[in-house]
Amino acid sequence: MSELEISAPQCSTHYSPAGNSDVLDIVVHKNIRVSDVIVSDILDSDHLPIAFHILDHVKIRNLSEPIEKFTDWERFQSLASELISPKLEIKSWIEADKAARDFAASIASAYRLSTSKVTLSDINNDLPGLDRLIKYKQRLRKCWQETRDAACKTAVNWVTKSIRRMTRKRELERWETKIEIARDHLHRLHYCNVIGGIVSPVHDAYGKKELLSATHRCEMLRQALKNSSWIRLSDWECHQEGWTRTRLVLQYHQNQLNSILNSNNESPNKRQRCDDLLWIPDDLKFRSGGPVQIKLLCGADLLESFATPGLWTDEDIDTIVGQHGLVVITREGNNPNKFIYESDLLTKYQSNINIVTEWITNEVSSTKIRRALRRSESVKYLLEESVIDYIHKHGLYSTKDK
Questions:
Q1: How confident is the model at residue 246 (pLDDT cuts 50, 70, 90)?
Q2: Cβ atoms of 22 and 59 closer than 8 Å
Q3: GO:BP terms for this protein (predicted)?
Q4: Residue among 168, 159, 112 nearest 138 (CA)
Q5: In this structure, are residues 45 and 87 in contact, taking their beta carbons and an 8 Å threshold?
Q6: 399, 232 in Cβ contact below 8 A?
Q7: How far is residue 190 CA from its own chain's centroid?
Q8: Quick one: which of 44, 258, 277, 368 has the fewest CB in 10 Å?
């Protein structure tokens, strides 16, 4: 056996146990005769004969005082003792490198086997499904970074795909995401029972640049909403003689809903026919109960537009906010309450304004999607396949059927 004393700089070796760029650093310190190093030396030595690092996340010195907390430290020590060669036979630099590889692989394996796996049940079950999956993914990713366990990596990929599937519908358009967030918020506060959501496309006479015809917009909305159980399309606004003010649109839909409820409270013979009112939720057509209130769902930009001279009349604001109410979706860092405070009229109806913070932001917007379509860029997974097919079929947004 060689009695050569090897200093740390001379015998430091680097290798990748998985054949990728994830490197373990093994350092054999000086004053230890490497030919005489055995398991007990590694486990019991007081002067750190061996130190190794895994991506700077897991650091174990001397194998007796781990920086990372193990679920089962005793099992780790036992596994390490079984897996590591009882004696490291080192007679050359090649053997030193091989011994280091074998040693580190054994330690990594022992660590992986003694570390608990993250399970979905570990995550707070009170969280909504999507939030729970996101938390789960974060835990799995950390486990993968620390252990390089292939099973963890597979689980990360599976959860990522699941999150994509769950968020796909919510990423179709900003307004659909806002409706979902608003409903969750109102239900969470026990403020009211949300029975449905209505999307009302503006009339062609609105005059917005690049506004498609109501026929195309309504058909794309039908395709986008076909799988929604509670969000409906109303084309009433599109079929008027011209542009209709927002307060009148709100009043019309609220009057129609309450008319249905009132007729349901009467005898069956007097019930109003509503076969043509496809935007009304099915469970509302035949139910009885108190009046329904329509609220306007909007972003902070629309709320602030109330201060734009000539854009809204006092009657508009008084009716929209006072009689119907607002649900304002805002992002972290915005301060809509300050804007409300600075407006005497909005402060008057402050109790009828619900502020909802969008914590998980979504950068998808109709403007960006239209731009991508004009540039022949893919919008797959951002829109329903049937909507994309319709756009290409009719050559909308400067696209061609491909």
A1: very high
A2: no
A3: NAD+ biosynthetic process
A4: 159
A5: no
A6: no
A7: 24
A8: 44
Superfamily for domain range 176-265+272-394: HUPs (3.40.50.620)
Query: What DSSP element (H or E) covers 66?
Result: strand 65-66
- Which residue ranges make up each domain of the chain? 127-172, 176-265+272-394
Look-up of token digits 């409820």: 261
Taking a C-beta distance cutoff of 8 angstroms, is the pair 204, 211 a contact? yes
Q: How far are the Cα atoms of 1, 26, 36, 37, 93 from residue 9, in angstroms, in the given order?
A: 22, 11, 20, 18, 13
Does this model's pTM top 0.70? no
Could you give the CA distance from residue 202 to residue 85 in angstroms, rounded to a whole number? Answer: 76
Structure tokens at 195: 């029975």
Estimate the crossing angle of helix 385-393 against helix 214-225, to 10 degrees: 160
Rounded distance between C-alpha atoms, residue 118 and residue 143, angstroms: 7
In our burial notation (b when 16+ CB lie closer than 10 A, e otherwise), range 200-220 reads bbbbbeeeeeeebebeebbbb
93-114 vs 129-147: helix crossing angle, rounded to 10 = 150
Are 321 and 352 in contact by the 8 Å Cβ rule? The answer is yes
Cα–Cα distance between 67 and 90 in angstroms, integer?
29
Residue 60 near residue 38 (C-beta atoms within 8 A): no
In this predicted structure, what is the pLDDT of residue 197?
A: 87
- pLDDT tens for each residue of 126-180: 445 566 667 777 777 777 777 776 666 777 777 777 666 555 544 444 455 566 6
Question: Strands, E, within 231-368: which ranges?
Answer: 231-233, 296-299, 326-331, 353-358
- Cβ–Cβ < 8 Å for 397, 373: yes
